[in-house]
Amino acid sequence: MPTTTRSSRRVAVVGVSLSDCGRVDEATPYALHAQAARRALADSGLDRSLIDGLASAGLGTLAPVEVAEYLGLRPLWVDSTAVGGATWEVMAAHAADAIAAGRANAVLLVYGSTARADIRARRRTSNLSFGSRGPLQFEVPYGHTLIAKYAMAARRHMHEYGTTLEQLAEVAVRARANAALNPEAMFREPITVDDVLDGPMIADPFTKLHCCIRSDGGCAVLLVAEEYVKDCRKAPVWVLGTGEHVSHTTMSEWEDFTVSPAAVSGRLAFGRAGVRPADVEVAEIYDAFTYMTLVTLEDLGFCAKGEGGAFVQEKDRLPVNTDGGGLSACHPGMRGLFLLVEAVRQLRGEAPGLQVRRPDGSLPELAVASGTGGWFCSSGTVVLGRG
Predict the structure, then answer these.
(1) Which positions are tagged coiled coil (predicted)?
(2) Over the chain, what HEC string results?
(3) Domain extents in the chain
(4) pLDDT at residue 3 above 50?
(5) pLDDT tens for each residue of 234-292
(6) CATH of 11-121+212-386, one of 3.40.47.10, 3.40.50.300, 3.40.605.10, 3.30.420.10
(7) pTM value?
(8) What's CA 183's distance to the chain center, in Å?
């Protein structure tokens, strides 16, 4: 079906799904892509012939060309933007813009990875760095690994604002408590602050439980133009506003270790959505490490700079990473697409575990998904709503 020439259309998420996740030893990444895509399409109730856009990254030599071929799609619009964990929020922004401008009618965002199974089968090893070419050549000789960059940033926040190890550990404890309610989560056993603090040191100040898990899995999200919503199986979740930003690649060019690019992407997304952080009722935030959750909450405006430590300890604070996040539920690689899936499920009232509700029992109206890539190098933020 040819795309429309309309200059502005509302855009909705109408299909979301996970593939099999956690420990998946017998599937290929392509199979997980296909499984997630089929499930998301079934969730939407639309016919696959409507899909004329595809966004994918992280698989194959010519992503998303290889993924499109495997799925049997011949898209008229594609995106292979790869900016780490923020990839999917940035792709969602691009897809929404394309649909609103009439360049596509229905865009499928799809991801799949067997990161855990590949290591288990010795098809790959753990990554210590992203390479030693370009600007990174000046850091790699000193053993400055990915986790070391996050650890340095966390230590700076602790120095500047008095953030404590116990406050960072609370992020992992809360994530595990949410995962305990989620039958799809990989790790569900309760943990305590002491469990986090007493674990093996990975990169000071991060012990093992400060760090995301490694899993297999995939997911898919289908976005469509407003005129197709009437044919969908379920009520739409609307894309209200998006923002994206990149800040640095070398640590020497990062002006302030305590400020992430979400400070910019969040401001843009909330401004374009016409809402305030205080209006948001559930937040899905990229959490490869505990510090990411804390500083992103600050930068999105849910609390003031330097107050993230106290905020994450509040009992009645904003529900965050309701599925258990990358710290406990799943983390097969670029996890940003999982944030969008969980945000949509929350607004639909379909969360498999913790379902957020208002005091009167009604469902939340607004959610935000904010992905972070690299070592706070990039950020994408998407504001979603039911109305």
Answers:
(1) none
(2) CCCCCCCCCCEEEEEEEECCCECCCCCCHHHHHHHHHHHHHHHHCCCHHHCCEEECCCCCCCCCHHHHHHHCCCCCEEECCCECECHHHHHHHHHHHHHHCCCCCEEEEEEEECHHHHHHCCCCCCCCCCCCCHHHHHCHHHCCCHHHHHHHHHHHHHHHHCCCHHHHHHHHHHHHHHHHCCCCCCCCCCCCHHHHHCCCEEECCEEHHHECCCCEEEEEEEEEEHHHHHHCCCCCEEEEEEEEEECCCCHHHCCCCCCCCHHHHHHHHHHHHCCCHHHCCEEEECCCEHHHHHHHHHHCCCCCCCCHHHHHHCCCCCCECCCCHHHHCCCCCCCHHHHHHHHHHHHHCCCCCCCCCCCCCCCCCEEEEEEEECCCCEEEEEEEECC
(3) 11-121+212-386
(4) no
(5) 999 999 999 999 999 888 899 999 999 999 999 999 999 999 999 999 999 999 999 99
(6) 3.40.47.10
(7) 0.95
(8) 19
Residue 84 token pair? 């780490």
The owner of tokens 């986090």 is 196
Instruction: Look up residue 99 and give its two tokens.
Output: 């649909």
